[in-house]
Every structure is written in structure tokens, then in C-alpha cells.
Amino acid sequence: MENNDSEQKAALGIVWAIVGVVVVSVLLLAGYFGLTSGKGGSKPATTVSAPQNANVPAVANVAAGTEQAAAGVPAAVKIFFETGKSEVPASAATDVAPIAMYLKANSAATVAVSGYHDASGNADVNAEVSKERAKAVRAVLVAAGVEESRVVLDKPQVSLGGNDADARRVEVTVHQ
After folding, report:
1. pLDDT in tens, the chain (176 residues)
2. What is the residue-wise DSSP string for 34-46?
3. TM segments (predicted)?
4. CB 118 within 8 A of CB 125
5. DSSP states of 85-138 as a string?
6. Measured between alpha carbons, how far is 144 from 94 in angstroms, rounded to an integer?
7. Residue 51 belongs to a domain with what CATH number?
């Protein structure tokens, strides 16, 4: 009977491994097609606790991007941050992957990174946090293989209307 228990445990381990692979695959595909790029609810994404400018998430060897170039310019990506924080969310590398692939396939294109904040509180502090968030997203793009000279940081902007999460976002937009 003990032998049967160990076989069941092994089978269960294999099933969980397969489930894990399927979940990761679905998340990667969702990020590739822009389904996790900040659309939907106002809840901010879980963030990585790594310090600024330290090991930012890297995108694993993004292909030449010929399919993306044929499909056109990728939509703008919105990356949401926690209140008062500038650490990039764990999903940021996946969210910007289509843009990185497009830039690799289109050498004339550039990308604008715009940080937003709301009008409440100290305007200077808000602008500085917004600027640090934009720098953190630029670091993710550079880690994905985009030349830093092709990433333009826009002046921090005040988010008008919307919800609290909209005021804590960075938008990444491709320019031809």
C-alpha cells in the first residue's frame, strides 16, 4: 500500500507541475497580447520589492519581432504603481514586451514614457515620484534590449479625473 501512496504523490506532483506550466503560459500570452497592461479594475499590480535601478525584470531574448511589425504599432501600455512607491510591478517586463519587440524590428521608432500623478498633496513630491516611476519603466525597457537613447522621458503630468490608480500610472507609447 505504501508503494501505491508514493505513486499517487508522484502523479499529483506531475499534475501540479503541468498546471503551473499552463498558468505561466497563459500569463505570458496575456501579457504579449496586452491583456494585462493595466486595463480593467483599479487595483494596482503586485510590485517587486527590489530597490530602484537594481535587477529589474528582464525579458528573455525577445525575437526579431517581425510578426509584431506586420501587425502595426502596439497600443500604449499603462503600468500602475502602489501609492508613494516607484518599484516596478512584477508584470512590467511582460507588459512592455510587445513594444520592445516592435522597437527592435523598427529602428526609426522611439518610445515615450510618461509618469502621472494626482493634484493632491505636495506637487513637488508627486512630480518626483512620478519621474522615478518613469525612470524605473525605462530601466525595464533597456533591460528588454531597447537602446536608452530611443526612450524619451516626458515631463511628469497631473492625471485629471479617473480613479486613484490612474494617478499612479506610467504610460509607454510608441512614436514613429
Report:
1. 456 777 777 666 676 667 555 555 555 555 555 544 444 443 333 333 233 333 333 333 333 333 334 458 889 999 999 988 999 999 999 999 999 999 999 999 999 999 999 888 888 999 999 999 999 999 999 999 999 999 999 998 888 777 788 889 999 999 98
2. TTTSS-S-SPPPP
3. 12-35
4. no
5. --PPBTTHHHHHHHHHHHHHH-TT-EEEEEEEE-SSS-HHHHHHHHHHHHHHHH
6. 10
7. 3.30.1330.60
Domain that holds residue 110: 33-175
CA distance 34 to 37: 5
Largest CA distance in the chain: 69
The domain tally of the chain equals: 1
Q: How far apart are the first and last CA of the chain?
A: 67
Given the DSSP bridges, would you call strands 110-117 and 169-175 parallel, antiparallel or unpaired? antiparallel
Name the pTM for this structure.
0.60
